[in-house]
Design goal:
Number of domains: 1
Number of strands: 0
Strand content: under 5%
Order of helices and strands: HHH
Length: 74
């Protein structure tokens, strides 16, 4: 599968996922907090077998920062 196809498929899958989340009325606060916790766990797990690259660690830090700012606005 090409990179472009992967991007398009991922966006479609996210749209489908968020349709389910919206249907059940899951709050933005819950989703944001769950994502922050998961990305923080990924950063902590870098000492395990699958070490994160600097790029992955920076990516996680950037997402955590953005989600934390968003959460503070809610």
């Amino acid at each position: 599968m090409s990179h472009l196809s992967e991007i398009i498929e991922n966006h479609k899958n996210l749209d489908d996922l968020f349709a389910i989340i919206k249907h059940y009325g899951v709050s933005a606060e819950f989703v944001t907090d769950a994502l922050v916790q998961r990305f923080e766990q990924i950063q902590k797990d870098e000492d395990g077998e699958d070490k994160n690259t600097e790029e992955e660690s920076a990516y996680c830090a950037e997402i955590i920062d953005s989600l934390s700012q968003y959460y503070a606005r809610l």
